[in-house]
Amino acid sequence: MARISLCVVVVLCFVRTGASEQGKAEVDNGLLPGNLVPSHYNLELQANMYDTTEPPFELQGSVEITFLCLEATGNVVLHSVYQIIEVVSLVDSWGLDVDISGVALDAAREFLTISVDSILLPGEQYTLRILFMSNITISNGSNGQGFNAQFYTEDNERRYILWSELAYMQARKVFPCFDEPRYKATFDVILLRHPGMTSLFNTHLMNTEQREGVWLADHFATTPVMSTYLLCFVVCDFPHVEMSTSNEKLVSIFISIRLTFCDPNAQIRVYARREFIEAADFALTAAVAAQEWFEQYTALPNPTSKTDHIAIPGKGGAMESWGLITYSEEYLLWDENWSSPHHKLVLASIISHELAHQWFGNLVTNAWWDDHWLNEGTASFFETMPIMQDILGMDPSKIQLMRHMFRELNADKSITQGPVMIDMESSTGRVPITFAQYSKKYLTRFSYSSVVSDDLWNVLSEQAALEGVTDQDGSPLDLKEKFDPWLQQRGYPLIHASWDPVLKSINLTQDLYNPRERYLPSADYNYKWNIPLTFGDRSSSASVPEGVDIWMDREDSVVDGRKLSGSWILINIGARSLCRVKYDHETFGGIIEQLNKNHEAIHPESRALLVDDVIDFERNGMMSAVDVLEILQYLGSEMEMMTWKQVLPAIDFFSLRLRKFPETWKLFQRYLRSLVDPVFERVSWYGQQAEERLT
Ligand SMILES: [Zn+2]
Hints:
The protein is an alpha+beta fold.
């Protein structure tokens, strides 16, 4: 039968209209039906910021989406919001037109449903073409949504930058698309601009073509297979600084994997507005070092041949768009005249975090946002790794403790899904799983696709089996079983520990740590956790042992402590597991005595956690202030910044209460001087060249 009808010319604005009955049934779960899978987009965007002086600016666009039909259907359902749909056409793989009987926008679900007269056939490939237009407005909030305009002032002149923020379901606000992370495809993009402006996209510029009038069309290289939320479009007149990575070791890997995408000497650029470009040097150095580190660690080159980092005026946070990472100016720029030394740590962490996403999140992506911790937990875990030691001279594990562990312990927050859990996973088992090997396997197996939590557990468990890491009874280590309670429940445990030095046994019980008794829903695991624990005594608490001593598997335990001796023991050496520990009176007394005698017999991270524990216990009425002041007495010899950082708010808290009592206040001040004076004498007001950065 001959096919007729070339295309449907429609003008659909933001009206709520219904999908056809068949379409409605398919989409009622809120997700796209899953019967059509996009493979490639040709997208052209023309943002006109030149004919008017103020937003809104008109955006004209066209998109051509090639998709495969998996199940017979009479509807093409995809996402679209805020666009005026002007022209729609559909062709099959022979280029023959498919009749369109209706086009409907469902504003509530942000669906664009295109109904066809015939049925689309399984196994067939189709190409949908849509012309559309919309407006670009001033950023809505610090993170923006879709394509945004942001003004700034230069030479007393109001200027605009156009930039997109498509996380996590905002691509549909720029162009019609299958806007769920599982729908990965390649993209060929053309951005139009006027002379004097620069357009940036995820991939490098291939060529520029002269269009009508003064318009120039920038054609960019085809992207890797990727999710829509990771696309990024920028039009600006910012200058940049640049360097190249030099991972010579990766040359052979680049050649054997994807020569078209990869370059062993990837170009790294940092863009900022003209008046701040001199503050981009630190970011450039950190970005090159971190990218080289990740490429060597994963043995996988970043498939975009370049990575741009751009500081956007008025933007908040940072976004890991593949090959074009956007930041607030505060998070990318550092200048010795107006930035603190500490701010370098913030910048380095954020740059590393966003670069970690290029692999963990961009190359391998959560299938849906309920598993978003797979992206964020891993990127946060890695944010302290690549450059702390080499560039900042800081110990990554100490930064990890300060940035993540203390934040989770002290937050009235929801489910523990983050870097602390990844850290627990990485050090789990009798010996730790080689996390680099696991990472390579995970990334290689799921490259250019999407994952759910079980995929991570399976690869971790496989790696554990391969390395002979077993559960405590010698059975295979089932990481899903171990960590599901951490994923499914809010909060974290409080362990009560009691040490019997005569019988050499440790009694352990666990409960939800909920001193403020906030409401929590009932949970399948009854607020018990599988906790990997290590133990130490006076001779073995200064360094973190490999692996774990026991798993406290959602029940109370009596642990054989024959390898331990002395009047006290320590649990969770190096603060690797997310929990607080309350010791029996005698053991706690022994720990205080040890801290005062020689605090270095206890691992620095454990000291910081001990101090944080007792401060929180006192604040919640679980420990007397006298006990806390007694343990803090050793601080006169404590040189670790992370411990002092936890103590300072507590001192404020005590001061507020004691100021009202003049005699006691005087005594407290004398007590404080006894803690601070010895440290001040050693550290002094000014930093020393050879001093550890976290002193
Ligand atoms: Zn992130």
